[in-house]
Amino acid sequence: MTADPKTALVPPKRTNTDYPLIDSDPHLRRVFGYARPSDYIIAGGAAAASPLAFWAMERVSPSHVGRGGFAPVMRLATAIGIIGGLHILYQRSCNRFYGFTENSREADMDMREMVDKVKHGEPLYGSSKVSSYLQGVAARNSRFSELFIHVIPWFNIVNHDQHGVDTAKYYQQAERELEADRLASANSA
After folding, report:
1. Where is the chain membrane-spanning (predicted)?
2. What is the pTM of this model?
3. Residue 162 above 60 pLDDT?
4. Pairing with 82, which of 66, 131, 175, 189 sits 20 to 30 Å away (CA)?
């Protein structure tokens, strides 16, 4: 018997990395929420580079366009810098989710967040009003999308349960913590 193509899951491709995979399709909020302060500093520096470079070029070799010509181009250079800075921030954070770079801090944050959700009975990756079929479509379209984001800006903004990781580890850790809490309360009583 064959599976219904509308409900069949397409498993994500497993990548061989030096660090553990946290999420093959992180939600946009998680990407920015898990970003390190160093990511924000590097992104801010990259964002400032474009208008500073333009200002320096204008000082070295003036264009003589007058007051009305410099301001719009400076706004454009600033917008390009901000977009570039956000791109760098998103890329650095996603690379940790994918396990391409060192991610022990993010793995610990992920474990803590998911175990807390298990303990409170919440869905691991949030609830969605989108049908399960469309959740699968969204997952397949945005999985590892950061690798091609410089060509097509594509982000995961859909809550779904297809993230390429075995979620049993969250439930096992939650069970261990709940058991430890029960033993501690039984010993103190």
Report:
1. 40-57, 69-90
2. 0.84
3. yes
4. 66
